[in-house]
Amino acid sequence: MDDPRLRSLGERPRRPPPHGGPARRPRGPHSHRKPFHHRGSQDDVADGVHTDGAVLFLYACLLSLSPPGRFFMKRNKVQDLHVSDFMSTELVTASPDETLGDVLGKMKSNDIHELPVLDRKKLVGVVTMRELMRRRNIPPNTKVSTVLEKPPEINPETPLPEAAEKMISAGFRAIPVMKGKGLLGIISRSDIVRALVENRALEGVRVSEFMTPNPQAVAEDDTVDHAVQIMRSLGERSVPVVDKNRHLRGVVGLKDIVELFAQPKVREQYGDRAGREEKIALEVKSVMRYPPLTVGPEADVHRAAELMAKNHVSSVIVTENDEPVGIITSQDLMAFLAGLREREQLFVEVGGLEDEPKDTYDEIYEVIQKEMRRIAPLVQPRTLAIHFQKYKPEGDRWKYSLRARFTTSHRIYYAHEFDWDLRVALTKLLDTLYKRIVKEKERKVTERKRHHAST
């Protein structure tokens, strides 16, 4: 396989034989899926803020740890839903001859991030807000046909979990729904969040078990440019805004600053800075949203999803004593839904690696596959999201900071590690996840013993 972004992963780890019996014979891979698919991140933001990433499919042991309870019955109900149940049919479209200025105006007025482009009623591509912001210095009168992207293919009968997975893999916030060559509608993240809310799929799940803990924040008097750099390094679309006491003051996100970055920037005409673009010097407090939408750690995730759906936002801040202690995003909800898709493979999302060579992805693949052989017998894996951040604290040497979110059939685990060596950092990260899983299982065993002793 010549493309370094594609890789065949081979056979999945074998499940330990039950009660000393013969090992089960592993079933073959899904023939229609590519095991390794490299992509741009779904969290690309303005001004060339771009997070390359990859989606890997690794075989894992899927163990039945307990009979399905009330919450898992709701999950099964969501698995039965299809794109046709929630897609939007009132479409905003463009033609190939329209200008970027026209399209950006449609996106802003309709609060959308993806716009299907039709030529004689035939879909020829999609223009995305992400791409317009990344290439913002293109003249506004440029034809939209120059920035078209090809979306994934889905139809009205596509199950919602599969649609969510395709959105994550391709980095789109919305995907056209096709029947043959005809455009029937569009399914977006907002539609999927609405589906989870209407089916109450996340009731009974505590926010503290679902959120990304300890979110990085920006200060009120930080510049917008600094906020964008933070979003870029974290692969996020929004970040909390805090005061000097770390009390939550607001939220700043892509849609709050998109108009600033859509405008051509003034270039210096004279002196040493001639030809350089002027940075956005506005303070964050001048563009942030206030009051921010919040929930407590003990609230249901269903409540957070309700707030997103009702207020048309993509994140909710988790607060305790007026301080941000976590964040839940629509991307988290998408990953949850994608994890419900029936598969014999672990869905792995990797982000934050720009222009890395093939060898880097080979290393990531090897480490994850090795560590999953330890983890898979303990839990039923669903999804693994790892974000890589590299920086130079001193000299010319890169240091790596890694964050992971590992979703199993019963809960979500988080880990954060760093090291000068990428492979060492990744190994430490997955080892931390393993130890937390073991600790959680030991805690449950102790609780059961105490319960039996008291009865």
Query: Percent of residues in helical segments?
Result: 25-40%
**Rg, Å, rounded:** 23 Å
Q: Which superfamily, in CATH terms, is the homologous superfamily of the largest domain? A: Ribosome hibernation promotion factor-like
Please identify the structural class as seen in this structure: alpha+beta
Number of helices: 11
Outline type: globular
- Count up the domains: 3
Tell me the name of the CATH class of the largest domain: Alpha Beta
CATH architectural group of the largest domain: 2-Layer Sandwich
* CATH fold-type name of the largest domain: Double Stranded RNA Binding Domain
Number of strands: 17
Query: Uncertain regions: pLDDT < 50 for 5+ in a row?
Result: 1-53, 59-73, 265-278
In round numbers, the mean pLDDT is: 78
β-strand percent reads 15-25%
Name the strands of the widest sheet in spatial order: 1-2-14-15-16-17
- Biggest sheet, in brief? 6 strands, mixed
What would you note in describing this structure?
By secondary structure, the protein is α+β, with helices and mostly antiparallel strands. It has three domains: 18-67 and 344-454, Double Stranded RNA Binding Domain; 83-198, CBS-domain (Roll), CATH 3.10.580; 207-265 and 275-332, CBS-domain. Helices cover 31% and strands 23% of the residues. The chain contains eleven helices and 17 strands. It has helices spanning 70-79, 100-110, 129-134, 160-170, 189-198, 224-234, 254-262, 301-311, 330-338, 358-375, 422-454; strands at 36-40, 52-59, 114-119, 122-128, 174-179, 182-188, 212-213, 218-219, 238-242, 248-253, 294-295, 315-320, 323-329, 345-351, 381-391, 399-408, 412-419. The radius of gyration is 23 Å and the shape is globular. The N and C termini lie far apart (60 Å).
